[in-house]
Amino acid sequence: MSANGFFDEGELVAVLTTQPLDRTLDYRAPEGGCFLGAFVEVPLGPRKVLGVVWGPGQGGFDLNKARSVIRVLEVAPMREEMRLFLGKVADYTLTPMPAMLRLATRAPGLGDPPSMRKIYRLGGSEPDRMTDARTRVLEVLREYGGLAFTLKELAEQAGVTSSVVKGLVKQGAVREEDSPRDLPYPHLDPDLPGKALTEDQATAVAKLQAGQRSGDYGTTLLKGVTGSGKTEVYLEAVAEALRLGRQALVLLPEIALTAEFLTRVEARFGARPAEWHSGATMTERRRVWRMVGQGDAQLVVGARSALFLPFRDLGLVVVDEEHDTSYKQEDGVHYSARDMAVLRSSICGGRVILASATPSLESWANAEAGKYDRLDLTSRFGEAVLPEMKPIDMRAEQMQPGTWISPSLRQAVQQRIEKGEQSLLFINRRGYAPVTLCRACGEQIACDHCDARMVEHRFLKRLMCHQCGETKPMPEACPSCGVEGKLAPVGPGIERLAEEAEATFPEAKIAMLSSDLFGSARALKAKIEEIAEGDADIVIGTQLVAKGHNFPKLTLVGVIDADLSLHGADLRAAERTFQLMRQVAGRAGRADKPGQALLQTFQPEHPVIRAILSGDEEGFWRTEAAGRQAAGVPPYGRMAGIVLSGPEVGPVFDIGNAMARNDAPLRDVGAQVFGPAPAPIARIRGRHRVRLLVKAPKGAPIQDAIARWIAPLKLKGDTRLTVDIDPQSFY
Length: 731
Ligand code: ADP
Ligand code: ZN
Fold this sequence. Notes:
GIY-YIG endonuclease; binds zinc ion; binds adenosine-5'-diphosphate; single chain; seven-stranded parallel β-sheet; Arc Repressor Mutant, subunit A; alpha/beta; six-stranded parallel β-sheet; Rossmann fold; 20 helices; about 30% helix
């Protein structure tokens, strides 16, 4: 390899492929040579596979047998910082490199030559014979000056068939050209006028931009109540990145939100950014991937995996709603996009902004410790004020069996209806009822493949397993005792609450918002817009409504069960309840009308409920931090979750027990192992699941220890092991 990373033809190169192998493979550099980092196609057995030139070949075998790289793909080579990043994520998450490369190449057809399409312009010659149709085509082309059209566009504009256009091409009156399909994204202009910022906002922007101009890595926690203008502030940081000629990435937790956000980007910068999410088409994904790599996409708005796009010069990553649990990927590569954004930026000298009204304890603690800067926006923009929060003590309410709206809440909703204002009733449970019970034998209908109860979805007229998605029709008779007509729903879900609301407020217009009730992101967005315009008196919603949607007429939030998530076994139960309740309450009173949030609870004196009501956020974080510190759990200690699964429970437990016995590599670094124990959901899709938990002091090299611990394991047949570093959920 030469000093600038070039391999001459025939030189041995090591290639990392996307195939599940535990090492790189040696090939000869192709005709014309290749650069370190080049994306290549190589032969593997009878197949051609995608790979990246990772370094000089290792040799050590009969060099006459070395095969050659088939070809170098026409895309920008992988940059050194990306190779470094992938390697570090692999080490951190204990993921094999081929899986990392797959994550970094999740765009189909990367290897294809740039795809071309035909476009049409005005040609030089006159056609031999003019017809009305031909005249119209030429008029359209003249009218639009030098603009090119696709065949379909041109025919439609002129109101002719495509054969008319083709005829003109033959005559030379219209010119046909090939043009690449993957076009650069339109230019975003950071110097279009932005909004006039409040003093608070301007101060935050000045600090962020000063950091960006330093050119050094740095992370800032941007904390501010919903509506305080966090988005306005970070858009100005995006503007600064663009002025500095660097690329920016905005990560959002939910697709449904991007539409509103894209409109804001367009208003600020005059054009739409590149989008990266699971709903994008194959062609669009490939276009984003290529344009990001060649620097022709200045801003990407996307889901967590956008972090693995081949940015040429990533100067800023914004993680909006940074506390959101969807940033943690829980299958395949178990990574936290928030943490990996920080890692990536530290490698490439970029800035990170973590925005939230209710930050994760991890980020709060990092700011406390001085690792992150912290900026607070304390007031809401304009007239809007934070809602008043009050408990409804359910022990004192007269409740009819099978109802969940207390008399106090009912009265508050009634008042809003009379004033023409909106109320939101929040319940974090999809479906009609979480449990279907047989009143004859006590059986609770469960999924056949999972250790989970089936949830009735009356809307779909089916029972559904929220673990595996399996559904079945609601039976007439109990599947266990066979008695008919005794199956009864127990507990509320959003559909049942809506039924109660309809009965309680017969004159009100009621809208339901739950992720499973809409076929597409577009249908959901349309519904949200209808509601925002005031087309509902009562909105009944799940977690979906807690996130960023703007309902100006909403002045009351009623939380049906504030205690629901308080008692999970999860170490983050208190934190999650606190975040969720504050986010939901923040939906009320965004415009000029003050809002109120009422929390139905059986434990108004519980410390978490009290902290939510009092609004003493710092007090809550400090108490929560002290508790975690005492218990030695994250972020003051380290954890890793191990899940073993297989079709038979016995062998899975045997492996778990053997792992617990042979824990020397863990003890070497001061780590402890707990378990094996059946996982909280002991069976999913027919596979039995056993968990082990590794706990270690902060700073212990836990990945290394775990790698040494699991290396000698021989997993037979269908048994699988997954390692989740810094687990967020414990199912
Ligand atoms: P957050 O991201 O903190 O929830 P947003 O940035 O979405 O807050 O701001 C809330 C609303 O207030 C938005 O409609 C936004 O356009 C508006 N807003 C915020 N700051 C300003 C400002 N300085 N000038 C005009 N409108 C603003
Ligand atoms: Zn199931």
